[in-house]
Amino acid sequence: MAEKSGAMKLAKLRELMEAVPIGGIKGKGIQAVLVNSDDAHQSEYLRDRDKRVQFISGFTGSSGFVIVTPNKALLWTDGRYYLQALAELDPPDMWTLMKEGLLDTPTTVKWLVSNLPPKSTVGADANLMSYTEWVYLHTSLTAAGHCLIPLEENLIDKVWGNEQPVATGNIVLPQSLQFSGCTAGEKVRLCREEMNKNEAKVLVITALDEVAYILNFRGSDIPYNPVFFAYVILTLNDLHLFIDKSKVSEKAQQQLIDEGVNVVYHAYDDINAFLKETAVASNEKIWISNASSYALHAICEEVKKYSAITPITIMKAVKNNVEVQGMKAAHIRDAVALVKYFAWLEDQVKNKKETITEISGATQLEKFRKEQEHFIGLSFPTISSVGPHGAIIHYLPTKKTDVPITDKELYLCDSGAQYQDGTTDVTRTLHFGDATSFERECFTRVFKGQCGLATAIFPLKLQGNYLDSFTRENLWSVGLNYPHGTGHGVGSYLNVHEGPIAISWRPYPEDPGLQPGNFVSNEPGYYEDEKFGIRLENIELVVKANTPYNYKNRGFLTFETVTLVPIQTKLLDISLLMDNEIKYLNDYHAKCLNVLEPLLQGPENAQALEWLRRETRPISK
Questions:
Q1: Residue 507 Cα to chain centre, angstroms
Q2: Out of 265, 422, 453, 554, which residue is the most buried by the measure of CB atoms under 10 Å away?
Q3: How far, in Å, CA of 241 to CA of 217, rounded?
Q4: Could you read off the pLDDT of 156-169 as tens digits, one per residue?
Q5: Is the peptide bond before 603 cis (omega within 30 degrees of 0)?
């Protein structure tokens, strides 16, 4: 069967929109349908079956929101994806790109209020939208005289039909105490302590990484994320696990018993019925995060809900000592792979031994990572981008776009891996020839921003939002900026983007504030459309700072950089650097050399060791 064209998909969707019964009346239809980039667990990355925005629009980025009306089709996405979306929307003449974050771009709600006919009905799948997002949309549309309704059937799935990929059901494996550092039984006990503090008798756990974390399980249902499809409902006596039990390996089942968890297995699809029964039968509060779906919230009576981020969210973000050491070890091995790659790549490009492209380069980097102990897979698709492609912030090379890596343009490589003891994410920008003075100035200002954040000292539990400008001031001062956040939390052999902490110009209301044991990225950048992209990314561990004073006994924090990959000094305009920035870089490079040199011995590593020694030489004015 031939694949449906973009125009055919939109036509079929609009036909289904007209047929949606409203109030039991057939033929009344809806005036707009909303499609967001979520699955039933509000995951950031999706399995193929849940890529509904991609199916209807052609856009493959991880963040998009679609509105389709009888005569309009619009996609909202942020600055990471403007250029990518323009290249992918299908058909381009039937779609409008709404550049989220620009001053002249209305929000989705403002657009709906301004463009819908009076008393319009808007439909969405309540399973695929968080309670927070649904309530905001519902309140705003109701105030404007419109109505938001949960659709009984997902209209995108109906358009997709038999071509929709099947659900994944991969095996679930145990994450041993060697790597987790805390038994599932202890995690459950800590959760129940928090439940008692908040007088909640039931805790609903829907986020897939939270399910994996509390059980000390890992899976592979979503590419690059070691998670699996399941729900957990925790009571004061039992843990109810909603999953196809045949997916859970015998070792995983036994580990759960050995770690002191009394588990009751249910079919995955029984979650709604069980929660409804629990809500009806119980007169006690049910704890469910506002990040969970509106559909699950609707099952719980309002008076019985306690809505807050789950205790697992905080536990998971604050790594224990075993996880901290594992993350550090994973980043050291990852650095070995990256040093090997950049040394090999420079040799290939400079000596013109073989044409290396964006794709073949990324493939070689993965090979070097596979050599490392505890390697499981990549933590996201490698962003291997040359010249203008670097300005496409989350660019993924394809056979159609793949180009050679040369000594004529900047090369941006953003990559990461999943190791059983930790998750990595690192970006370096290099030039194998001679960069322009403007490229060097931009690179230097990006580095100054990264240094400014890495050396910052700040109060305990300060929200990351307040630190964002540390990385931007040297760009702002000359009228430059970058359109993405500065930092995200990182999981411990879990999701590479982990909430609830973040460093961004956007406020994150549920951010509990930074504290020792958090891992967060530090990744400022600069991008010239159609020319080049620059980004430097390190992962930072939040640690206690030694300060001469301690205002109100609050305690102060700073960062320890755990990424150990040299920064290309030849791209720096040293005249723009302050003495403290030069000292920071020299100290950082000395650490890279001291840690990695012993791991790069032997003739097979001679090329990498020579590159490492050269790239970590001290600089001075």
A1: 17
A2: 422
A3: 12
A4: 999 999 999 999 88
A5: no
Q: How far apart are CA 483 and CA 101, in angstroms?
A: 8
Query: pLDDT tens digits for 202-213?
Result: 999 999 999 999
Q: Is-cis flag, bond preceding 91, omega within 30?
A: yes
**Amino acid at the residue 435:** A
Q: How many CB atoms lie within 10 A of CB 370?
A: 13
Q: What is the DSSP letter of 381?
A: -
Q: What is the pLDDT confidence band of residue 101, given thresholds at 50, 70 and 90?
A: confident
CA distance 98 to 336: 41
Take residue 101 and report the two structure tokens written for it: 């974050």
What number of H helices and E strands is found in the chain? 19, 28
Instruction: Please state whether the predicted TM-score (pTM) of the whole model is above 0.85.
Output: yes
Query: How distant, in Å, are the alpha carbons of 260, 353, 567 from that of 433?
Result: 59, 16, 16
CA distance 31 to 67: 10
Q: Are 419 and 375 in contact (CB under 8 A)?
A: yes
In whole angstroms, give the CA distance from residue 354 to residue 515. Answer: 47
**Residue found by looking up tokens 């095996």 in the block:** 171
List own/partner pairs for 193-198 with CB under 8 A and 24 or more apart.
194/311, 195/234, 195/236, 195/287, 195/311, 196/236, 198/285, 198/287, 198/306, 198/308
pLDDT for res 1: 43
Query: Cα–Cα distance between 396 and 398 in angstroms, integer?
Result: 6
Structure tokens at 329: 């070890």
Residue type, position 6, single letter:
G
Say yes or no to pLDDT of 2 above 60.
no
Lateral strand order in the sheet of 285-288: 263-266, 239-242, 231-235, 200-205, 285-288, 305-306
Quote the pLDDT of residue 121.
96
The predicted structure's pLDDT at residue 283? 73
Specify whether the backbone of 530 is left (phi greater than 0), alpha (psi in -120 to 50) or beta. left
pLDDT tens digits, 4-17: 899 999 999 999 99
Number of residues in the chain: 621
Task: Give the N- to C-terminal CA distance of the chain in Å, as an integer.
Answer: 66
The per-residue pLDDT for range 33-86, each reduced to its tens digit, is 999 999 999 999 999 999 999 999 999 988 899 999 999 999 999 888 888 999
